[in-house]
């Protein structure tokens, strides 16, 4: 999987997706990716350039990068929907990592069923 920076529209807002290393962006020392609030940017750890991951297979690295990208895109959709700041007295439910992980992990399966049922 060749990795290149790109732009994508999320609910009408353009987000830049950048693949960086932990050395280029220290925020990646604690996570595989993040959404910036200020710059409408999704930053994903380019694991194939990180010496800590040199012994991992391409299959694993590609899978990890795709999972991280799906996760961060869900965060961006929730942000653009205004749900990350208006949780109706529930403590940041739209920023809850467990919920975002569930959506990011299950969405390919959900889309497969939608496709099979022709209801997309």
Give Rg in angstroms: 15 Å
Total separate domains: 1
**How many beta-strand segments?**
4
Please state the overall shape, judged from the principal axes of the Cα atoms: globular
Could you characterize the architecture of this molecule?
With 120 residues, this protein is an alpha+beta fold. It has one domain. It has two helices and four strands. The chain has a four-stranded mixed β-sheet, with helices on one face. Strand 1 (6-10) and strand 2 (13-20) form a beta hairpin. Helix 1 (58-80) packs across helix 2. It is globular, with a radius of gyration of 15 Å. 18% of the residues are buried. The mean pLDDT is 87.
Summed up, what is this model?
The chain is of the alpha+beta class. Helix content is 37%, strand content 18%.
What order do the helices and strands come in, and which of them pair?
Layout: E1 6-10, E2 13-20, E3 33-36, E4 41-45, H1 58-80, H2 97-117
Parallel strand pairs: 2-4
Antiparallel strand pairs: 1-2, 3-4
Q: What descriptors fit this protein?
A:
120 residues; alpha+beta; 4-stranded mixed sheet; 18% strand; globular
């Amino acid at each position: 999987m060749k990795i290149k920076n790109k732009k994508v529209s999320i609910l009408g807002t353009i987000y830049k997706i950048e693949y960086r290393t932990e050395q280029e962006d220290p925020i990646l020392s604690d996570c595989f990716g993040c959404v910036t609030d200020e710059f409408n940017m999704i930053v994903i750890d380019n694991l194939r350039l990180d010496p800590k991951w040199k012994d991992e297979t391409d299959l694993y690295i590609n899978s990890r990068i795709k999972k991280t990208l799906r996760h961060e895109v869900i965060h961006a959709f929730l942000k653009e929907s205004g749900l990350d700041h208006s949780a109706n007295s529930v403590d940041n439910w739209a920023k809850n990592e467990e919920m975002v992980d569930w959506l990011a992990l299950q969405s390919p399966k959900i889309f497969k069923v939608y496709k099979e049922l022709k209801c997309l």
